[in-house]
Design goal:
binds flavin-adenine dinucleotide; 5-stranded parallel sheet; 466 residues; FAD/NAD(P)-binding domain
């Protein structure tokens, strides 16, 4: 086994950049405190870099690893790439194709004769998977390296629990992977976690707690964005439906329910102080289409088509003969909204750290994003288009050569864009192969406004994200 050839700089003395010389002369100029003097590309070169999750960001990481001639494995719990995206495959994205394709992936694809979709067109989720992710995954350089139906249930350091220090960096990572009933153990020299957050929605419960009652009622609750105009139509037809959440996804869900006709009773439950806070700028909105969305929902509320309950904090759900009761506090007083037949909740999602329990992580206490990233993505200050591009240095974890990227790197913040994730993995792969200069370059250009609009939503009634 190779012994590491680097020093760890004492981070109490300096909290700066990666290379020793620079670090000594340029202390404390970044928010991250994990200093490295030399990437460990020499470490366990016979072992693969393991990427977890074959969404757009995991696959982009794969493309960059191909370009750099690296040995890698891509583990995906689903049976297809883009498994999460396919769950909202009917939803139109708010960013056009030009921002949704990784540059290196595009180069690899074009070599195989693939033709990129029109740059300005706004795809739906399913098109992202079928027209981009699947062709990418089918490239011979990537295809044989993806293991489907392979769920990572734990990541650790070989022979080391979380507490053990001495020699920790001299051992590889070890991943426990569930594959059709068996548990495989895979060793890795670096791990990139690109598992997203989609499969971990927030509960209906306003305290953020998963109650046993809510879990039991899961057949009557849809977490996310149902395909109301498509396969889920019959589920909501003529029903009494509570839509939970005050963002664009909830508004779009309501607009789709309205299309099902007068027989659908719609109850809109939020925590906002007043419903006007959900309308946005309406005609004053800088983005005309987003303003239009606010105007439409405003009108439906004024007409009484949508019954609003805000601020309503739900603390418990109860199944009765009449349906589901939402029990909580409405305008500060105990209240029960009874008899709901279906609940659709659009209250965001959260990262799953359970399988990373044995790794040393640095996660922001509020957003649950990668810690050094939190000031850059605070949803109170930033929309999708204004998050500063960032790379390896910001994404660094205390556990050397382990990275959380993509949607998961933002924790609970909803401001993530694929284009930002592509830049993350470009920088990390550059670092892992020892190209420090390239890892530090910021190569992402986003327009100041526009990529995070809801333009398309109003044109086809589908839901936007941000
Ligand atoms: C409705 C909606 C609309 C959006 N619109 C846009 C947009 O217009 N533009 C934009 O840039 N971004 C948009 N986003 C945000 C973001 O780009 C997407 O969520 C994107 O899918 C995130 O990519 P990802 O690769 O980080 O994660 P995901 O796409 O969530 O992929 C994660 C993958 O990891 C797999 N996985 C999970 N756990 C494990 C495990 N333990 N082991 C193995 N595999 C695992 C999953 O099956 C999945 O395939 C949108 C998001 C949503 C929800």
């Amino acid at each position: 086994m190779n012994k590491l050839e680097f020093d760890i700089i004492d981070s109490s003395k300096c909290c700066g950049p990666t290379e020793k010389q620079e670090a000594m002369s340029n202390c404390c100029n970044t928010s991250t405190q994990y200093n490295r003097v030399k990437p460990s590309q020499e470490l366990f070169t016979h072992l693969p870099i393991v990427v977890i999750g074959a969404g757009p960001i995991g696959l982009a990481a794969a493309a960059h690893l191909v370009e750099q001639g690296q040995n890698f494995i891509l583990l995906e719990s689903g049976s297809r790439v883009g498994s999460h995206i396919l769950q909202w495959g009917h939803v139109r994205l708010f960013s056009p194709w030009q921002y949704n394709i990784d540059k290196v992936a595009k180069k690899l694809l074009e070599k195989s004769g693939w033709i990129a979709p029109p740059e300005e067109k706004l795809p739906i989720g399913k098109e992202i998977v079928e027209q981009y992710l699947e062709p990418l995954a089918n490239l011979p350089e990537i295809k044989d390296r993806i293991l489907f139906n392979s769920k990572v249930i734990a990541v650790s350091k070989k022979g080391f629990d979380k507490m053990k220090n001495t020699g920790r960096e001299d051992v590889p990572f070890v991943l426990y992977v569930e594959q059709q009933g068996d548990t495989e153990r895979i060793e890795a020299r670096a791990v990139i976690d690109a598992t997203g957050t989609w499969s971990n929605p927030n509960p209906v419960n306003a305290d953020g707690i998963w109650t046993a009652e809510e879990i039991l009622l899961n057949k009557s609750i849809h977490y996310g964005i149902p395909n109301i105009q498509g396969k889920d139509r019959d589920r909501y037809l003529n029903k009494r439906v509570a839509v939970i959440g005050g963002g664009h996804s909830a508004i779009n869900t309501i607009l789709e329910l309205v299309e099902l006709g007068e027989q659908v009773e719609i109850y809109w439950v939020m925590r906002k102080a007043k419903v006007e806070d959900a309308y946005g700028g309406e005609e004053k909105d800088a983005l005309e289409a987003r303003g239009e969305l606010g105007k439409r929902i405003h009108q439906l509320v004024d007409e009484g088509r949508v019954k609003v309950f805000t601020p309503f904090k739900i603390y418990q759900l109860k199944h009765t003969e009449m349906g589901i009761d939402l029990i909580g506090e409405y305008k500060g007083k105990a209240f029960i909204l009874s008899g709901m037949e279906e609940i659709i909740t659009n209250t965001g999602s959260r990262p799953d750290f359970s399988f990373l329990r044995e790794l040393r992580l640095s996660v922001d206490a509020v957003t649950e994003s990668v810690e050094a990233l939190s000031p850059l993505i605070d949803p109170n200050l930033h929309s999708c288009g204004t998050v500063r591009p960032h790379g390896e240095e910001i994404l660094r974890q205390p556990e050397r050569n382990f990275y959380i990227v993509g949607m998961k790197s933002y924790g609970r913040a909803p401001t993530f864009l694929m284009a930002t994730g592509y830049e993350q993995v470009r920088s990390i792969v550059a670092y892992l192969v020892g190209d420090i200069e390239a890892s530090k370059k910021v190569e992402l250009e986003l327009p100041e406004t526009g990529v995070c609009s809801s333009t398309l939503v109003t044109t086809n009634n589908n839901s936007s994200f941000c």
